[in-house]
Amino acid sequence: MRKLALTDDILMQIEEPGRYIGNEINSIVKDKSQVSLRFAFCFPDVYEIGMSHLGIQILYEMFNRRSDVWCERVYSPWPDLAEIMKEKQIPLFALESQDPIKDFDFLGITLQYEMCYTNILQALDLSGIPFHASDRSDNDPLVIGGGPCAYNPEPIAEFFDLFYIGDGEIQYNALFDLYISMRKSGSYSRREFLKAAAQIPGIYVPLFYDTEYNADGTIKRFFPTEEGVPAVIKRQVDSDMDSAPYPAKPVIPYVRATQDRVVLEVMRGCIRGCRFCQAGMVYRPCRQKSLDVLKKYAVAMLENTGFDEISLSSLSTSDFEELPEFLDFLIDECEKRKINITLPSLRIDAFSLDVMSRVQDVKKSSLTFAPEAGSQRIRDVINKGLTVDDIMNGAREAFLGGWKNVKLYFMLGLPTETEDDMRAIPDLAQDIAHLYYETLPDKSTRGGRCQITISTSFFVPKPFTPLQWAVMYPAEEYLHRASVVNHRMKEEPNHKCLSYQWHEAKTTVLEGIFARGDRRVAPVIEYAYNHGCVFDAWNEFFHPEIWDEAFKACGVDPDFYTFRERDISEILPWDFIDIGVSRKFLENEWKRAVSDQSVTPNCRQKCSGCGCTQYKTGVCYGR
User: Fold this and answer.
1) Residues 278, 134: one domain?
2) Is there a single domain that holds both residue 271 and residue 229?
């Protein structure tokens, strides 16, 4: 019988003990004596969020297909358990075997958002793994990072042995083969393995690189320090989505996850080219799965899970070319099983009344649209490609389809934004509310008052986007911009139909520092963790005063990373990574954003020469 890492008395003391016991349906358990490599896959946040992450499910399936590899899962323990683990010296453990992470060969950490960085240190701390890669011995697990934040790994580089840049399906097998062969031959040492791993495309080993700075703090040069190590790390791209591994039997959580449903990826990448969107750039080119493959996985996942809902995953589901045919199939399958279908990431301009009524004909839950900006001028700055007619026509179709609750997502602090642009946000919401009553003048057909929820986040410039050079603002300025929106909303005639929520401003500033930081930021993160910061993405645990203290104690000026516009000639901390999108393309898009606010057509309308034709796949194929 499997022994749990936590005793019954501890499980009785903590919130949601089901987070830590493992043994969920479809989890994979192997005989550890029969495998050559053990991989602990960590999502550095609470179980409910980590279990909703599709990337881990895909790689969990892929790694465990190998008979010589056992991949297990680990999540950040909630503060109540973390305190007990520190007090009782209980090491962080994997769910499947309940074994300490220190016993594994690899600790893989997915980096989905910057505000999880102190949770990474918590995982290392509770595992007994030295924070700094340079302090680890041959007996310590190799710590590897991947995911969106790996596209600027420098603020956390000294905490990792390796980073994987790109689609994980491509090179992980080569990395595992290298490790297993060196272990079996007796030639393994940490340094020699890392030197060999650095030759695998897409693998970045921070230990073998250094940075030289100019007097003004900008980067003078970034260079390899080890002979034979590549100067440029090339992103790995999976060109065959149909053959890529996918979990037909995803692990079913014991605790209700934030995404408690079957999730089916229909395509990767996006054709749109929004200038603020990192995912839209680093996952280029747009690649679709075939209808036959999607049908096969849909049926298998529904049969193997028991979930009552299936969701289609992509950056822009309405751009999936075979969506109508696939929906016809899904509707037939889901009606037989009494399963709901959800379609996130739909663009308001492509919204179909027929689709809405067919996939959500039982309950009319709220619809979510992301105009991103209230004014047409700012939508053109960010290349959103939405006109006010697109937005109003989509809203009208939604109201005719029976929806009365609409959530609208916007960003504040975008380049060139003025107060007129800020006030345009509630003005647009007001126009949509007015449209509801205009479209449905008869009270008996309306079903009550409409509710328009405005939600604004504050813009954070991300690496490898055309807006990566943009300036950020102090937290007080972001709050001022939110107050402009709030004040204007209360002036609207139908303001009782409108509600407004905005993001935490100080969190935004810190996220911006991490997003565009360099190696000098690492000591700040370490100081903050050592003084009590963890779960910074959660408002109730965020301590801005500790972070202020950390920057001062480490002699790092946070304003250097946020409140200045980068010169286009400046060397950026992530410039050694080649994502396939050319620097020239990003520069041209930046100039178009701030100069003439001209719109770049999407990839299906016209190729804009971003550089991704080199992959000869997806939307670029044949060009």
Assistant:
1) no
2) no
